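subagent[fold] <- orchestrator: predict structure for attached chain, return tokens only, no commentary.
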Amino acid sequence: MSGRPVAAWPGPDGEAPPVLVGVTPAAASGLTILMVVGAVGLFALADVFAKLLTHDTPSAQVVWVRYVAMLALGLVVASDRGRAAWRVRRPLLQGLRGLAVLASGGLFILGLGHLPLPEATAVSFVTPTFATLMAILLLREAVARRRWTALLVGLAGILILLRPGGALFSPAALFPLGSAFFGATAIILTRRIGGEDAPAATLLCSALVGFVLLSATAPLWFAPMAPVALAAAAAMGLCYAVGQLLLIAAYGRGEASLLAPFSYAQVIFAALLGALVFGWTPDGPAALGMGLVAASGVYILHREGVLARLRFKGMSVRRARRRAAQ
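subagent[fold] -> orchestrator:
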């Protein structure tokens, strides 16, 4: 059986625990789907607090608060998983992955300071498209015609949403796009790590890398926070941590490749919260672009799930891809 993890990415605010294809998959029930939807809803709510904080708090400090929650979560998971969570066989790849996750989260927070929440979220969700392109270029994976179509649809959605050269385009739009790129890089590194390190070890390594680097640079950016800002930061960290715990519980019960497409509910939550809290109203091109990005990502994750299930049945990668393309 292949030990390569399924690429499931619910956006820049948290990543699904990598579930190995060598483990017997459980069917996704209504409860596990609700857990994923609830998790990404909490991530969207955490983004609201993050956007509010970026008005008066350095972006690095906002990211650091999230890493405090991420590290606490990593320690909780590691204590539950035992020695395997502390055994790292690929330290270089884990370090690079930690840097990629840090860059992804940091760029997304920077984008939130300049862009509407729904649009920043939608752009960052091009991550599966970038991951598939990287898999073609770096891992030399074959891609069937349907997935190529999905890639092109996703890229078209980004162009429509960002409208380069138009009056609404700004350099800040490159922040969530960079977030998606580094998020995809983290997925590729996770695939390279494969089953050599436990998922709990990967989570803990990424949390430690980001927390240590940000803490070391704290004298350069740290600013005192007012009581209201502290309350918002605490709420953000709580939403983020509880959302991650829900994801871990959901992916422990259901198959990652079946649950991952439901992470796109975060785009819907972001649009609703953006309208309620910030008075955001999408124009026609923005709504179309967000829809295309979401449709492309859901389809790509669906095809990844088909391939994973076929490989689990013992098919070769080539035969599985041929069957999946039918």
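orchestrator: received. Logging for downstream: The two ends are 23 Å apart (CA to CA). The chain has 14 helices and no strands.
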